[in-house]
Specification:
With 578 residues, the chain is α+β, with helices and mostly antiparallel strands. Helices cover 27% and strands 20% of the residues. The longest helix has 17 residues, at 421-437.
Amino acid sequence: MKKLIFLLVGAAVILYSCGGDKAKTEKKTQTALGGVKYGGVFKMNENEDFRSLYPLNITMALENRIASQIFEGLVKFDQADLSIIPSLAKSWEVNEDATSYTFHLAKGVKFHDNSCFDEGKGREVTASDFKYCFDRICVSDPTNQMYPLLKDRVKGANEYHESVNNKTPLEGGVSGVVVIDDYTLKIDLNYSFAGFLNIAAHNATVVYPKEAVETYASELRINAVGTGPFRTKMIKESETVILERNPNYWKSDEYGNQLPYLDGLKFTFNKEKKAELLEFKKGNLDLVYRLPLEMIGEVVGELEDAKKGGNRPYVMQVVPALSVYYLGFQNKLAPFNNIDVRKAFNYAIDRESIVTYTLQGEGRAATHGIVPPFKGYDYENVKGYEFDIEKAKEHMAKAGFPNGKYFPEMSLHINPGGGDRNVQIAEVVQKMLNEHLGINVKIEQMQLSQLLENVETGKSNFWRSQWIADYPDPENFLNLLYGGHVPDGISERSYVNSVRYQSTKFDSLFNIALREVDQTKRFELFRQVDQIAVDDAANMPIFYDENTRLIQVYVKNFPSNSMEYRDMTAVYFDYDEE
């Protein structure tokens, strides 16, 4: 079975199943120039509830999958290959040492019509709107998790942040974000940073209107006003989010057809993965992201049957993910403030077994660093932790807990999402730690929003986590361990570096790597940084993930990618292909 699944990597293949028929009234589309078709509502499901759609408080991938259809920034990722492409900035220039970026905005782009505006009509976006939003990233607020994106990097970001904290905000905001004219924005950095365009494509650097902030205040989390191809129509928390086509969207395709093609998007929040797959097979969903582990064999069997013919096709897409699944240690608290305990835990886990048997071959054992396999990055030369019971016991004894004696009973905090794989992995880890180290670990389940709250505020000591890249760069993973993100107090929120790992050696080399313009040298420095974190056992990587999804065969222009980044702007339905 493992071999069969690996054969699918990087490919889209057809499989068949006897699903129900979609209502004929939902199949009305209208052909436009170039053969594309207008119409239809794309339906998809998430297995967790969202916390917020406010760009500065989006910390979950599912939130970004919704918000990225509503908001736009200066640039964005190409959905096929994750390269940087224009968004609201039609062009840009970068100076020779990558310390200054100048963006030229498209004219005539308007915010969504919304009651926060006079007469409910969205106004034109200018460079001043981007300036306003970049400044807000540097304002301390419980709903702002994104200051680390600009901290130290953008000129004046730190100074403005401090001035706001002191209730004496500097006039002019962040000095390095400069409005040249209505359609030109310049951003100056403190040091060379070749990866800044990735930051400009981040969900936190999108544009939204001041009017919405002033009108909705704390309710911005469910009142999303952007410029994107879709706008909010209905939000019923824990049940449904419906986005409708933005009739005033500024962009057209190569044939002159106004985008987007779809009438709307519908997100549901069914926690049961099996039920989600069943709804897909009935034709009530157009996408399933991740399959229930216990049903992978069934789906692969259907794939094999498809070679013999069938009556309803699906498309299966599998790509290696820019994602690492790991268990977090609270480095500031006992027992994980002891490096030997952290190393003992890492040696005690058989990652290959977890991937082969628990995950049914999905993914790759994380026997290297925190950065997953990445083009141009020499991850294989980061030496991680092989399964070694004797070494695990040696480090446990060195820490003062021979054979687990005197070791405190603790809880492993997890959320039950992910098609039960979080629970299954936790149970395997629990068993391995007991058998190999003689310690007892209790599994404690909670919803993802509560888990994140506990982790960020230092209330969890040992927990399940996963990092899906915000942008395709090793820096995005290693930034999770940068000591400059750790607050002084254990109860103060630590969003980025939630394990609160701090190493002078790591931080020094990380800062050198950040400033390196040559990509080959930059990636090699990041590899060395990765090795430092591994040697310190800062956390416990388990596996590098895969993105597996099923889409209905009539879904077009919807390529899969390693970040599961979704851009529904040019997706359309062609029911003639059923």
